[in-house]
Specification:
By secondary structure, this protein is of the alpha+beta class. The protein is about 25% helix and about 25% strand.
Length: about 180
Amino acid sequence: MRKMGYGLAASLVTMTMACGGDFSPTTPPVTDTGSSIWNSSVQTLVVENHGGGFTPQPPPGSTCLVGAKKFTLTVATSALAWTRCVGDGKTAYTETSGGRTLTAAEMKSLDPVLGALKVVKPDGACITDSSILTVTVTTPVATQDYVDSGSQCSTSSKPLLTRDAIQGSLDKLNTLAGP
């Protein structure tokens, strides 16, 4: 088992206290309404915009959908990996990928954004002209998929997170990934 650096360990303790949770390595992913999914039991967090929605048809030869992005954060190593769909609407859209290790300050900057990912009750919202946003959390016990609250008509069996909170996470992770 890897030892965590002091900064990351302190961040996890602070995060646990800030979330008001009493989490341990044997805590499964959160599914209770009002609870933040970002806590000290999270090993990996994947935030994804599946792309598409109400957009023009991608040019011929495209291998991904407009707007598609996927960010994978491995907490223990502060590793951020990403895949993005890039194109200009004239040439084929293709995936680019990369990765980097986040600094302790960058990891800490994620706490408020990822802490805002809280399970919400279904409200009947059905957005049919935009892409689906998802989050997947892995703890030592299990993996849990979450979907944005605007997609509850097409995905009713998963816990919901607000679309705004997922989009905020995507935006922050995209910024940390760089150009």
